[in-house]
Amino acid sequence: MVAEKDTAYRVNGTTRSQVMSILLKQGPVAAAEIGTELGLSPAGVRRHLDKLVEEGMAETCPPRAVAGDQASRGRPAKHFQLTVKGREEFGTSYDTIALEAVDVIESIGGEEAVREFARRRAERIFSDVQTGADSDDPEAAVQAVAAALEAHGYEPTVRRTPAGIQLCQHHCPVSAVAAEHPELCEAEHEAIARIVDTHVQPLALIVDGHGICTTNIPLAPKAGNETKGAADND
């Protein structure tokens, strides 16, 4: 019993975290049951539950079915359980499993096998993006790249700068693996270069300790501008 109590206080020891721990271990569970365990009023517990539901961390659900129990008359109490997002607050081993998988690929086929895996992964990410940018609208190609990245768990933004167009990734879902196997980043940059039809310049990487991954896509001067500049110099 002591071990269970310690687990309930595992995440910072706050009431919110205690409620989440009970939802994790006992859900589906009613507010009154949580209140009894924590010594809180059902109304006080419901305030935390309502906030968790609002944030997408918990959800309402039917009570757990128990063999032999007869359905009680009247309106059943509302029950709650954690969502996938809520469970992720307690940590997962996805990064560890992914890293182990790539390590196995390397042990079997060497670095070239990892590069091939990275290339195929990049191809899947950008499979719906047309290769070869419209020279009159390179930003549209970068926006298409950003949309593909966002669909795969990245948090990209696009902005113009005097040096070109910057693609910023504020979150990388594979940073733990990429830190050990930079081939993943290299394959993404190669794929982006093919799509925008020009070379790209990686300026910062999350795996190197930066807050975001920043890739610059330089804009070539338009042919008309070059011609005009040459004429002005004559």
Explain briefly what this protein structure is.
The chain is built from ten helices and seven strands. Helices cover 52% and strands 13% of the residues.
Task: Explain this structure.
This protein is of the alpha+beta class. The protein has 2 domains: 15-63 and 78-89, Winged helix-like DNA-binding domain superfamily/Winged helix DNA-binding domain (Arc Repressor Mutant, subunit A, Orthogonal Bundle), CATH 1.10.10; 93-218, Muramoyl-pentapeptide Carboxypeptidase, domain 2 (2-Layer Sandwich). 52% of the residues lie in helices and 13% in strands. The chain has helices at 2-8, 15-26, 31-38, 42-54, 84-88, 94-125, 138-151, 175-180, 183-196, 223-233, and strands at residues 29-30, 58-61, 79-82, 156-161, 164-169, 201-204, 213-217. The strands form 2 sheets. A 4-stranded antiparallel sheet has the order 4-5-7-6, with helices on one face. A 3-stranded antiparallel sheet has the order 1-3-2. β6 and β7 form a beta hairpin. α3 (31-38) packs across α4 (42-54) and α6 packs parallel to α9.
Which shape, going by the Cα principal axes?
A: elongated
Question: Could you tell me the mean pLDDT?
Answer: 83
Low-pLDDT stretches: 1-12, 222-234
Strand arrangement in the largest pleated sheet: 4-5-7-6
SS elements, strand count = 7
CATH topology of the largest domain: Muramoyl-pentapeptide Carboxypeptidase, domain 2
